[in-house]
Design brief:
With about 180 residues, the protein is an all-beta fold. The protein contains no helices and twelve strands. The mean pLDDT is about 85.
Length: about 180
Amino acid sequence: SGQDQVAVGAGFCAVYGCTDAAALNFDPAANTDDGSCQYACTAAPYSENFDAGLGTWTQDVTDMDDWILDASGTTSSGTGPSDDVTGGGNYLYTESSANYLVTHGLTSECFDISALTNPCFSFMYHMYGTAMGTLEVYVNGNLEWSLSGDQGNSWIYAQVSLAAYAGTDVTIQILGT
């Protein structure tokens, strides 16, 4: 599978490159985007509470509605939080009661952590219910944190050290199964 262009006569000759002027590697001579555009990472520190939605995070393409923004409890009984950690805001959750062994991904934008002396990813999680699956955190594609099963009916603070990535750019992915 793929994509190709055909031109006959005097006219179009494809010049491949990055055609997005906002990209770091924009090529003004290119007339056909080749998917190579690169963008600057957001400088850390960064914070997101999901009160207004996903912020700069994205759901995996196959899971577009599987991370649900909510403020008042999950759709199943005997599971999940009934409120966000601050008591009045929104949170994201994925329903595990009817989605056995289905993985839902949530991915951050790129973060530049080079200015941080002790880089760390911290977050709050709530894993409550008998059908609770697994929550995983990946950094640049590497599994760095994982927890499975019912952890009780409360929000719990967690940290993932990013010391191994100090001086680099990172992308965080959260997977709920």
